[in-house]
Amino acid sequence: MTSNDMHRRTVLGGAAAAAAGFALAGCGGGEGDVPRERKKGQKITLTFWSWVPGIDKPVDLWNRENPEVQVAVEKVSAVNGQQYAKMHAAIKAGNPPDLGQIEYPVVPGFLLDDGLLDLGPLGAARHKGRFSGWQWQQSVFGKGVYAIPQASGPMGLFVRQDLFDKWGVPVPKTWDDYESAARAIRAKGAWIETFAPTNGNRFAGLAWQAGAKWYATDGDTWIVHLDDEPTRKVADYWEALVRRKLVKTIPDRQNAWYKDVQTGAVPAWIGASWGDALLAGNAPGTKGAWRAAPMPQWRAGADAQANWGGSTTAVFKKSRYPEDALDFAVWLNTDPESIALLIDGGYGFPSAKKGYTTADLDVHKEFFGGQTYSRVFADAGAHVDTSWRWGPGVDTLYQRLGDAFTDALADGGSFRAVLKKVQAQTVSDLKGKGLKVESGG
To answer: Which of 186, 342, 343, 205 is nearest to 267 (CA)?
Structure first.
């Protein structure tokens, strides 16, 4: 085993202090990939792959203010993980960009490829206090810092208030209320919403809120807890709604779903803070009718919240000017003017602690009938269970969940069987990558 292999085996295991069980693939760079410090007056160009809406505007601002360090944006598709497939391929080919937009759940996957630069030796820790603590920790493994937080996606419930009022349906405060609302809305010929079988990201958020912990570590061993009791509770709940035909089972955020949202066939959606732009952009005819509310709770009076999405700006290991790349990543996500431009583009809930107000996030206030709806998501973000951590192979886990839920809907299989199957598959997948893994429950 090479020293590089030994290093890769220790990086992500540090997620639990002294754990040392994460095998990372890939090889060290050649002589031409050695990071270098930019000389005074030297002009360079950094490449940045991103799918964030409106990302060009803050980058243009940076380029105007930093003539010696230009940033060239390449938009990458975020459909079905295409952006990550492209990034992983570039890492393996030895020609990744300098920076990339990477969501929190998939950061560990890039460490498997040994593709991200540890920003700790560059002094990244001095910026820690500028960001939400739990979001900063999502990219910290052991003593390494592997990305700069950009945004999160605290979850909430979007509802067509006009239709709920017309039908006399109260906005649900608990999951029992939600089932009652689903029954009342179905009696009116609509469905409260859809259980999207391929949306593993949202299902993870629902499990997160219920108290699940999908990944844990014990020494140098990863423990996979996908089939734990909180996740079973979530699976049972949604299976019951599906079997009683109280929800649809079409994918969300696709054409058929957008049509249902516009026509009122689906008058609610459990989404994330960035969903305001999505609804406003795809259902303009419903302007003024929507409101945002907190997620329903499993226990009346509780305040359990979760997150769906959120991303970072990461520096790839082969970046030749990593100090400049780090400077840009921090500026992009903390400069007030940059944040304002990102907010206008609808990028999510800022990870930075300062540089904006909650009111600044109410970009689509008229669409929400004048509601200061971002307060709902600010409150949710303040009560997210910050002990949740992501582990390796999440992108594959999502694919397997999507396949298994789709099969269960087609053949009548149980959702609990889905969890059991995908847990076993995930354990097998990670063992295949050389990790020490055990199955929890």
So the answer is: 186
Helices (H) and strands (E) in the chain, counts: 16, 13
pTM value is 0.89
Alpha carbons within 13 angstroms on the beta-carbon side of residue 415 total 19
- Taking only the tens place, the pLDDT of each residue in 377-420 is 999 999 999 999 899 989 899 999 999 999 999 999 999 999 99
Per-residue DSSP letter, 312: E
Those residues whose C-beta lies under 8 Å from the C-beta of residue 304, and which sit 6 or more positions away, are 209, 210, 211, 295, 297, 298, 383, 385
Name the strand (E) or helix (H) holding 437. strand 437-439
- Pairing type for strands 221-224 and 99-103 reads unpaired
Output the CA angle 313-317-323, nearest 5 degrees.
Answer: 65
From CA 29, how far away is CA 425, in angstroms rounded? 32
Annotate 55-67 with DSSP letters as a single string.
THHHHHHHHHH-T
Contact 345, 281 (CB under 8 A): no
- Where would I find the H helices in 211-364? 229-243, 255-263, 275-282, 322-334, 336-345
Count of beta carbons in the 10 Å neighbourhood of residue 244: 12
The partner residues of 305 in beta bridges, in order of sequence, read 384
